[in-house]
TrEMBL record:
This is Imidazole glycerol phosphate synthase subunit HisH. The keyword Lyase applies. InterPro entries: Class_I_gatase-like, GATASE, Imidazole-glycPsynth_HisH. The active site is at residues 81, 192, 194. IGPS catalyzes the conversion of PRFAR and glutamine to IGP, AICAR and glutamate. The HisH subunit catalyzes the hydrolysis of glutamine to glutamate and ammonia as part of the synthesis of IGP and AICAR. The resulting ammonia molecule is channeled to the active site of HisF. Coiled coil: none annotated. PANTHER family: IMIDAZOLE GLYCEROL PHOSPHATE SYNTHASE SUBUNIT HISH (PTHR42701:SF1). The lineage of its organism: Bacteria, Bacillati, Actinomycetota, Actinomycetes, Geodermatophilales.
Length: 212
């Protein structure tokens, strides 16, 4: 049984994430302890609310260092909702510009859509060769957000590269935005797999099965 730590930094649907992971067979611990988070087979970083507030909470439990250390050792991390957004360089909300973890280039900004928040079920345009979305490419997932990453520089085809490109899954709500990323040990979804029924459960199973 794979050991999964859900990082408790004062933000996120901790218990629903814990229950969803336990249902698909993970041995789950909700923790703010750095060593527990570092030692787990997989680390889940949830998040709801404002980008800047999430970053403050994350820094309070040494979250950016924990994430960085895990990734330096090729240890899997999965970000969910704002837990995905804080992996990017910056977030701009209500005129407030806050630094993120900087694991990926890109800015989290308000979607250009006639109705916000984007709340409810939506389809996604799955990246070719996706592991997370294997077998659920045509399913719908549950989103609740007003902000997202509309331009992801690493997704641009700029010719040959010595490093594998991230697999980027997109969605649309008045605007095209990043719905999921798979980049070596670092994966993330803008939607909530723990609220996405059978499709979300399969995504979590796919991630769990990818853990070494």
């Amino acid at each position: 049984m794979k050991k999964v730590a859900v990082l408790d930094y004062g933000s996120g649907n901790l218990r629903s994430a814990e229950r969803a992971l336990a249902r698909v067979g993970a041995d789950v611990t909700v923790t703010s302890d750095a060593q527990t988070a570092l030692d787990a087979d997989g680390l889940v970083v949830p998040g709801v609310g404002a980008f800047a507030a999430c970053m403050e909470g994350l820094k309070a439990v040494d979250g950016p260092r924990i994430i960085g250390r895990r990734l330096a050792g090729g240890r899997p991390v999965l970000g969910i909702c704002v837990g995905m957004q804080i992996l990017f360089d910056r977030g701009v909300e209500h005129g407030h510009d806050a630094d993120g973890c900087g694991e990926w280039p890109g800015v989290v900004e308000q979607l250009k859509a006639p109705v916000l928040p984007h709340m409810g079920w939506n389809q996604v345009d799955v990246a070719r060769g996706s592991v997370l979305f294997d077998g659920i490419e045509d399913e719908r997932f549950y989103f609740v957000h007003s902000y997202g990453v509309r331009d992801f520089p690493l997704a641009h085809d700029t010719g040959p590269s010595p490093l594998p490109r991230p697999k980027v899954t997109w969605a649309e709500h008045g605007d095209r935005f990043v719905a999921g990323v798979e980049n070596a040990a670092l994966s993330a979804t803008q939607f909530h797999p723990e609220k996405s029924g059978d499709a979300g459960a399969q995504l979590l199973t796919n991630w769990l099965n990818s853990l070494d």
